[in-house]
Every structure is written in C-alpha cells, then in structure tokens.
Amino acid sequence: MKYGETLLRVRYAETDQMGVVYHAAYFNWMEVGRTEYFRQLGMPYSEIEKSELFLPVTKAYCHYKAPARYDDLIRISTTIASLQDVRLAFKYEIFRANSNELLASGETEHAFVNRKGKPVVLKKNNPFLWRRILEATGEKTE
Q1: Is the pLDDT confidence value at 142 over 90?
Q2: Does the active-site annotation cover 72?
C-alpha cells in the first residue's frame, strides 16, 4: 500500500459564516488521513499506543489552494514521505471528491517516542511496525 484514501464530508462546525472551511480543520483532516492510513496497514494507532509507542507531531505544513465548503465530500490521500530511525513524515493531498480539485497539500513529521517522551528507534522498539511501514513505502525489508 503506497497511499491511503479517506473520504469525509465537511461539517458545519468546520466552517465560518460563509460556509468556508476554517484553516485549522485541514490539520484535523490530516490526522484523520494518518489514522486511517495506519488502520489500512492493519495497525490501528490505538494498537501502536498499547505497545508504548507514540508519534507526536514535530512539524506541520499546509498549502491552501482552494476553499472547501460546507457539505463538500472531500478525499484525503495520505502517503509516507520519509521514514527514518526515530521519525516518520507523511504527505497529504486533500481533494474535492466530486471534481477531483486539489484543495490543499501538506506534510506532518512525527517522532517515535516512549511514554516519557524520549525518542526511540522504531526498528529496535517495534520491528513489526518498522517492516509494515517499509512495505507500505515500497522499500525492501531487511
């Protein structure tokens, strides 16, 4: 699986008085895309946390291209941009589903940390997840 896709409908609470989506909602949608990506890998994020592994956001970026509006059906495309020993980055594209118009693109970077917030090397801490992510990126597992 090189990318994951998630559909959702813009809710009224995500918009301003003119029905245009508030800019911070896009970061929430990226989280939805990321969470569903892990679920599609067979590793729901709740299971990752049960193994005492957490992925706090260390960087976030969004480039807005066109406004989403109330009741639009949107499609979030999520891919892994990079995988390193102690960090993982995702790339997102958010489209209006009916027209395939690109509304926004962005990236988030995450550190692999333990419950105390200390960085951990994923390959050593959770070899299963390391292999699943490598397979998802299309890279060969060791």
Answers
A1: no
A2: no
